[in-house]
Write a structure and sequence with these properties.
The chain has 220 residues and is mainly beta. The chain starts with a helix and ends with a strand.
Length: 220
């Protein structure tokens, strides 16, 4: 409950400072899901280098911990995790000394054998979005089934699916399944008609993100 309250407070702060944010959190590789032991780099892309941006996170076990102090390796405005673990699943953001915070990014790390590579940041209406269903040990062109909000969208023979000219109706929870290998975790895709989209975050009360606790906020 305490962690949930802190996350709600962070959301309100972000909402109030959304129009003046000077940093954007980016993730490389650009994905919201990762296999255990993958390498992940996070960067605070900023307009004002004097703001002193720090990368922080909330997980199921910790709140507002700073990169370099308790997890990851900090280099300037970037933070790297050499061997990401399932307990690294959580909400990540950049925070300045003055108080404003960047967009929040929800990362999911799985010990399973299938992930869904989907956009980390909100996508603009009218853009094309490609989803990739991949396994850890085999080629990433295996046939895969894609689901939105629990319902089958389609089956693709090569493991990737493109949604052309996305609209608000395409917003939702996506996952994929590769026969004989398993199912990926679910990830939320946010579609916005405005470049001023604040954030999408998940309230962590368990070690895994509960779909029912996913809340999406957009400012227009």
């Amino acid at each position: 409950m305490k962690e949930t309250s802190v996350l709600c407070l962070l959301f309100l702060i972000s909402l109030l400072s959304c129009t003046t944010n000077q940093a954007r959190l980016t993730v490389s590789p650009s994905s919201s899901q990762f296999f255990k032991d993958d390498f992940v780099s996070l960067s605070c892309e900023e307009d004002d280098s004097s703001a002193g941006w720090t990368l922080r996170r909330n997980t199921s076990k910790e709140t507002k911990t700073q990169c370099g102090a308790e997890w990851g390796k900090s280099t300037g405005n970037s933070c790297s995790i050499s061997y990401i673990l399932t307990e690294d699943s959580g909400v990540y953001w950049c925070e300045s000394r003055e108080g404003p915070i960047s967009n929040m990014v929800n990362l999911t790390v799985t010990g399973g054998s299938v992930i869904l590579q989907s956009p980390v940041l909100p996508v603009m209406e009218g853009d094309d979005v490609t989803l990739l269903c991949k396994t850890k040990t085999t080629p990433s062109n295996l046939p895969a089934a894609f689901y939105k909000d629990g319902s089958l969208i389609r089956k693709q023979p090569t493991g990737h699916m493109t949604i052309q000219h996305v609209s608000r109706s395409d917003e939702g929870l996506y996952k994929c399944d590769i026969s004989g290998h398993g199912e990926s975790p679910s990830s939320w895709i946010t579609v916005t008609g405005d470049t001023l989209t604040c954030l999408c975050f998940c309230r962590f009360q368990h070690s895994q993100c509960d779909d029912k606790l996913m809340t999406v906020f957009a400012l227009f």
